[in-house]
Amino acid sequence: MLATEGIRDAVSGPGAGHAWLWFHPLCAKRNSPTNAVTGLLLKCLHPFETFILNLPLNLPGLALAPASPQFINRYSEPATGQAISAAQELADGLGDAAASVSPKYFYDALGSRLFEAITELDEYYPTRTEAGIFEAAHGPMAQALADAGIRRPCLIDLGAGNCAKASRLIPHLQPQQYVPVDISVDFLRGAAEQVQSAFPALDIVGVGMDFSAGLILPPEVQQRDRVFFYPGSSLGNFSPEQALAFLRRMADPAQGQASGLLLGIDLVKDKATLEAAYDDALGVTAVFNKNLLRHVNRLLGSDFDARQWRHLALFNESESRIEMHLQAQKNLSVRWPGGERMFRGGERIHTESSYKYTVASMSGLLRRAGFTQISYWTDPKDWFAVFWAAV
Ligand code: AVJ
After folding, report:
1. pTM of whole model > 0.70?
2. CA pair distance 391, 174, nearest whole angstrom
3. Beta partners for 262?
4. Which helix (H) or strand (E) holds 45?
5. What CA–CA distance (Å, rounded) separates 357 from 359?
6. Is the pLDDT higher at 1 or at 72?
7. Domains plus CATH for the chain?
8. What are the distances in angstroms from CA 186 to CA 60, 161, 181?
9. Which residues line ligand 1 (CB under 6 A)?
10. By alpha-carbon position, which residue is closest to atom 8 of ligand 1?
């Protein structure tokens, strides 16, 4: 019996496919092939003598295709100072007269799982609408890359999360390298391993980092033919001014950045549909919002009690954005090392803005950022758009 999970293409390059490493399911510890090899299946493809050898072997230095993807954590390493600045950033936001916490702090491991659950809700249309667009238009999208002279892209997946969207696109875009990037480091690690099992020969470099402040990627990431993949309307978490600055950085060849950008954007629609998507009947989004307080407690050492807060979601028409808030249900105070804050009952912490665009407003923003070739695809209801933008 072969361990389906353990079979990997053992030889990459010439002769690929002629030798397989076989891991016994009971002995095979995934991702540590050198400890786990119990047999080597050698299949000779001589036209007359096709035979299979199964010999128990110890293979200490055999060069294998990577059993697990490369992973570079630029986020929680103390050396980068990011853990320290997170606490500072949180304390600053909570100290403001109008308190706020950046939505990037939704995504601890539980938050990433809760977001996955949100994407399955009836009311949360963006994920499935966007998936429908990719499904319908992956042909023209691949063609757009080819027209821009991009053959084997380096697909850089910003806010990759569970990597599900990219996994569906990889067979169509045939990237040379896949670079999932996410602030939710441990969640990303597991997701990147799953992509590696699905595509054993693909060069994967997982990067744990907060890219909201900058897009400087580690040297392991291919320089040529970089395609940023930024789906799910995550760009909508930036204000339009911040989004413009972020897009400019991507478009700027001097910063060694994108040859192109594949961008998913949620479009303006009626208020009821928008608000339901952020305030679902099961209360999953409410839990997602309140989980942020647990994450903040861990990062800042604060003593938020999630039970004292209520989830609010409303569409701000003049700003064209969904706003999520946490509202104090009574007068209360929150303490953390070096600070404290009183909240009156009814007072809010602004936890997320999710800007909604029109095809025209997003095309304008992309042009102002320096992208010249712009195409887009939408769903039949015009609820969501996927843009291709090349410099
Ligand atoms: C991941 C930022 C695209 O704004 O729709 C979902 C996050 N917040 N429900 C969005 C989110 C509440 C989501 N983005």
Report:
1. yes
2. 21
3. 229, 388
4. strand 37-45
5. 7
6. 72
7. 6-56 (no CATH), 70-270+356-390 (3.40.50.150)
8. 29, 10, 12
9. 118, 126, 232-234, 236-237, 278, 285, 352, 354
10. 278
